[in-house]
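[Q] Does anyone have a clean structure-token version of this?
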Amino acid sequence: MGSPEQVLQELLQKATIHRTSYEHGELSWQEWPCDRPDDKPPLVLLHGGFGSWTHWVANIPALIEQRKVWTLDLPGLGDSSDMPEPHTPKHAADIILHSLDGLLGPTTHFEVAGFSFGAMVGARLALAAGSRCERFVAIGAAGCGELHVQVHLVPPPGPDIDPEEAASIHHGNLRVLMFADEDLIDELAIHTHGQNLARHRINTRRISLSDDFLQALPLIEAKLVGVWGSRDATAGHNDAIEKRRQLFEQAQPGAEFHVLDGIGHWAMYEAPAAINRILLD
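[A] Here you go.
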């Protein structure tokens, strides 16, 4: 494996970049062609708060062997333009669905997977799309109201901080918030985390404390799938995870629910094979 910059650059070369307009800005999309095209609907992946498409860097290579995948940078994050008011998951979802209509066609069916804050947006996207969204996978979803735990972090380093000191701060925050196994925090994870933080222009953490996800969940037509790591720092104790399972069952009898033993919040990076199996069904 090369440097983090090389890994991301080589991966991104496989994608076609699209820019779609919304209100006063543009969304940055990445279209990943499938190595073995099939008749399954495209899979739309939504990253978490203070992130970008790179939250899925450990998953994309295996997923595109079997599925057509679309990723994007959410409004106010990554290479997309600022998020216009109101800063709500529904508004972000409306922007994304409008862009998807242009990219895929207004009648094309698709599946959605969202991580953390992206699961909040994904829930609203699945709701707005109705029967067009066939499956919605929520990974470590935020927006669970009193069930959500806010983790206290060291303030992110500014641009003038020594790179080694900045990497140390990122490593510490990743250990507290994103990973259960500290040994899996590698240079690529630290690099992507630092790059994503440097480009954020919306406070998704404040939005994540709401119960917006739980409000949307029972209204979604798509097949529901919930995924949490058993050691997700934002999830709380085991009883809180089981409460989420109950809420999924109440929202949709027979909904899938997976608890990944020993895995933290950034489950896609810490347990990519397990997440990919769920996404590929």
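[Q] Thanks! Anything notable?
[A] The mean pLDDT is 96.
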